[in-house]
Specification:
Distance between the termini: 97 Å
Helix content: 40-55%
Strand content: 15-25%
Number of helices: 8
Structural class: alpha+beta
Order of helices and strands: HEHHEHEHEHHHEEEE
């Protein structure tokens, strides 16, 4: 859905957003939506620009990428790409800095956004859980029930969903690349596990074949041994010029010697 300023938002939160903005204005404040839905290309440009800026300040590329990921979400992970998030500032202070929290508009939004299904997504002192710096302008639509519970408990979306262990914990030295690397390692281990299973099945098959051949070989040796010992006999009987051969069955006596069934 397209907003009056040309920005776009997911239709699932369009009505709730309009209602929240109208209520904020009726309370005497001046909210301004400065960012909403972003395409992959837009997010990539924002991320690349942040990386370039940090590199210009003297940071290595890896350091710049790691730090940029805590300020501008890595392309493909930004909530703006869902269309359920907006950045809202006060008309009288449109800078995306921590000073936003002091504006009348932000104070009202932080206290009332949950009533409309929105949450203050990246609160102060929660960066170790969310992996993102404090952003007093970033609001995410989650629905009224979830928003109320999150607000009442004073928790983040990660804590509400129980996925805090999957986030990059900056205080413990994790970065966004670390999580991706972990997933890659787990993927390799899973593939190796499948290969081990396949090799195990093949090995079992080979052992089975060898076992069958071994049994056949032992049986052949027993047969040949009995034949050489004279315990293998063929009796010939015939009548009217017809000869019938009868092969008597062989058996092993209790002492292991060859014998024949009488």
């Amino acid at each position: 859905m397209t907003l009056s300023n040309g920005l776009q938002i997911d239709r699932r939160c369009y009505d709730a957003l309009q209602e929240m903005m109208d209520a904020c204005r009726e309370a005497g404040y001046e909210p301004l939506i400065c960012s909403a839905y972003r395409t992959q290309e837009t997010q990539q440009d924002l991320f690349n620009n942040k990386v370039a800026k940090l590199e210009a300040e003297g940071k290595s590329h890896d350091e710049a990428v790691q730090e940029a990921g805590t300020v501008v979400a890595v392309p493909g992970t930004s909530e703006h790409q869902l269309g359920l998030t907006v950045d809202v500032v006060d008309v009288n202070n449109q800078n995306l800095t921590e000073e936003q929290e002091k504006t009348p508009t932000q104070k009202w939004l932080m206290a009332n956004s949950w009533r409309y299904g929105f949450i203050h997504r990246y609160p102060n002192s929660k960066s170790d859980i969310t992996g993102i710096i404090y952003e007093p302008w970033h609001y995410r639509y989650v629905g009224k029930d979830a928003a109320q519970e999150i607000f009442n408990k004073g928790i983040t979306l990660e804590e509400y969903l129980g996925v805090t262990q999957l986030r990059k914990n900056k205080s413990r030295g994790f970065c966004r690349g670390s999580y991706s690397a972990l997933l890659a390692v787990l993927g390799v281990l899973r593939i190796l596990g499948v290969l081990v299973d396949v090799l195990g099945i093949l090995l079992a098959g080979v052992l089975l074949v060898f076992g069958v051949f071994a049994l056949l070989h032992v049986g052949h040796l027993l047969f040949v041994g009995c034949r050489r010992s004279g315990r293998y006999s063929v009796s010939m009987t015939g009548s009217a010029g017809n000869i019938r051969g009868k092969l008597k069955k062989l058996w092993l006596t209790r002492d292991g010697k060859c014998g024949k069934i009488p």
